[in-house]
Hints:
Helix 3 packs parallel to helix 4, helix 8 (about 180-190) crosses helix 15 and helix 12 packs antiparallel against helix 13. This protein is α/β, with parallel strands linked by helices. The chain has 15 helices and 8 strands.
Amino acid sequence: MEWKxxxxxxxxxxxxxxxxxxxxxxxxxxxxAISEAGAVGCITASVYKTPDGLRDAIREMRxxxxxxxxxxxxxxxxxxxxxxxxxxxxENIPHIETAAxxxxxxxxxxxxxxxPWIHKGATVEFCKHAEDLGAxxxxxxxxxxxxxxxxxxxxxFTSIAWASRRLKVPLLAGGGIADGRTFLGxxxxxxxxxxxxxxxxTTKECRLSDRIKQNIVGAPPxxxxxxxxxxxxxxxxxxxxxxxxRDTMPLDRWIPAMEAVHLKHRxxxxxxxxxxxxxxxxxxxxxxxxxxxxxxxxxxCAYIDDIPTCKELVERIVTEAEEILDTWEFxxxx
Length: 334
């Protein structure tokens, strides 16, 4: 079947599936494999640390695939942010994604560039704000996901259903999605596509260490530490302390500190720039990242049983979804 949604129309992809920004892991090689599979690969700018490094990655990407791709610039989590935007504009990339901090300071430049702009948020209100600024599409990540969170963030199911009632621009759903059922579930809730991080970091092409990938494959989604990390609100005292430090702490230290507080990680006061901490994702010992020792992953671990190639993963999700649609009798009653 043809998977035609507002996201496939906007991004020019075969399937309404996009790779999430992956600190330390979002290389052009991984993005190219995802784009070649018919989804939208996404280069994470902070992986390359310098504007010249990002420019080289974009050019390598274009040599590897003719299919559409995006570049993620997470504001406050990427070095040389202004210069990274300049590189994206100069290279006229197909799509650009912003995330983490409010994009207000960059909205005018993004719109003037003519490059389709996607903004990722953790709450409906932040996504609505991005829509009002002129974003062409938004990603909404629910509590089921890993990474930067918000005190008012809701579970993925509620987030997407509510957002579909409030937003006019195309919507990508993120947080705990990794198979055909969760793909269809997101579309049924009103999303125009899905946005996956954990599922793509557990593929053969990702440079995440093999030990961590195997840990994700064997991880139970109902582990108390994972539930505490992803769903429980931050410790009130820690949250108030880091919130009060916004005006005195550099943004590239405040953003990772706030992320660590929401994930209830130890040592959040010593959190450094994300592009420095992310290098540890290639190591085999993940004890420093928090209460769990098994690595960074979302509730998507519930649906991850092996380590496929990107092509195998995307085709599996689509095939599962099509098989489910073929067997749902209630769909044949109209």
